[in-house]
Sequence to fold (338 residues):
Amino acid sequence: MSYTVTLSETSDKFDVQPNEPILIAAERAGLQLMHDCRFGGCGACRIKLLDGQISYEEPPFGLTEEEHNQGYALACQALPLGDLTISAQLRPAGFISADYHVATIQQLEMLSHDVTHLVLHIPTASEVSFHPGQYLNIILDDGSPRSFSMASPPKGDIFDLHIRRVPGGFFTSRLESHYQVGDILDVELPLGNFRHDVDSPQDLLMIAGGTGLAPIKSIIESLRSDPTTRRIMLYWGVRRSEDLYLDELLHQWARELPHFHYIPVLSEADDQWQGARGYVHEAVCRDHDDLSNFDAYLCGPPPMIAAAKRELSLRGISVERIFADSFNFTHELDGSVA
Fold:
């Protein structure tokens, strides 16, 4: 026995088998729903249930309790319990599929005690269009991927990455001891659905945790010369002042760009720190009671994303206007280490 799922936007219908995720059934029917990690971590495949019920084998951590209570579900994990009507976003007609390329390490330097600046030269990617905010995969010798957001905007064949060292991580630890300028890496790009909604008239609230700054930086840099850019407020949360590896650059941008505001936030500040303290989403909430004029762009670890989503929705930002890139790609979710 199968169930029928109907897309409210297009009236398309497809069948799904019991205990089969909605995303898998949609793909079998030739419908490309928006998605990314497939593990329930990123939230990119979020749909809204208009009629019917679903279940999960395990609650996905890419969906907050507030989103669940409002009728949202993640298509990659949701199992229908009967016929459904859903609202879902399809991949646009001009969607750019990822492809494989050969990259050369052009620059390799430490930005801080645990963040490496990796610059890749990818000649065959010079004509590849990607959206600021997307990421690429570095493919290791065993074929496993390591995912890193592109910190630079689309500008030809040079790609910047900010890579935080993961304790015990195979790839990130070898960046310091094994790889050197001139080495060759296999890469896959572009990937991911995190990007700026260029058609929105709202101001931009950007919240980054650690190296979650990378895709946020790509978006901001792509908007620097745009005269129509609305106000941009960037809150960057790290533990200590030495973790603010691009602090000087961001302060410079704040001085140069009248529409850009930068607030660094330390969760483990010492007595010398004169700026914002605590968790980054708490600093946002202290500064703003009403955020209804903003779209929110969040990038960082899953607990930060979940906490920020919850608090921002209480201050006037609808779930549909909160865009998130949670740092929990496939290689982290399936148990391997970066």
